[in-house]
Amino acid sequence: MPIYQLSDHGRSLTWNDWKKKLDGCSLCDIATWEANKGLGLPESHWPKDLTLGAIEDTSPLAGRELARFAVEHLELSHLAIEYRRPSYE
Q1: Cystine design at 67: which of 12, 60, 75, 80 (Cβ 3.0–4.6 Å)?
Q2: What are phi and psi of 12, to 5 degrees?
Q3: pTM across the whole model
Q4: Computed over its alpha carbons, how large is the radius of gyration of the chain?
C-alpha cells in the first residue's frame, strides 16, 4: 500500500476549500491534536486561509491522511504524490 504526501497543488489548497468545496475528510483525533498543537489554535479557530501545506508542516501525519483521502476517496490524484523517505546516505 503506497504512502502519500500532499503535492504542491494539494499543499496550496485552503482548509476551507478542502472541507466545503471538495467535501474532504476531517482529520483523525491524533492528527487534529498534532495540528492544533502546532498551530496553537483549536480546529474551530483555524483561519479560513490556512493551507493544507501549513497543516502538513505542523503534522506530517495529517498531511499523509489528507493526501490518502484525496487519492483513494476523492479520486483527485493530482493533490498527492507518493511519499519517499529521505535518504541519509
Answers
A1: 80
A2: -85, -15
A3: 0.87
A4: 13
Specify the pLDDT at position 89: 67
* Residues of the chain below pLDDT 50: none
Torsion angle of the four alpha carbons 80, 54, 48, 12, in this order, in degrees rounded to the nearest 10: -40
Regarding beta strands 4-6 and 80-82, do their DSSP bridges make them parallel or antiparallel, or are they unpaired?
antiparallel
As a whole number of angstroms, the distance between CA 41 and CA 56 comes to 15
Using CA atoms, how far apart are residues 28 and 81, in angstroms rounded to an integer? Answer: 21
How far apart are the C-alpha atoms of 37 and 76, rounded to whole Å?
28
Residue type, 34: E
- Cell reading at 30: 491524533
Q: Which of 76, 59, 78 is nearest to 22 (CA)?
A: 76
Looking at this protein, which amino acid is placed at residue 51?
A: T
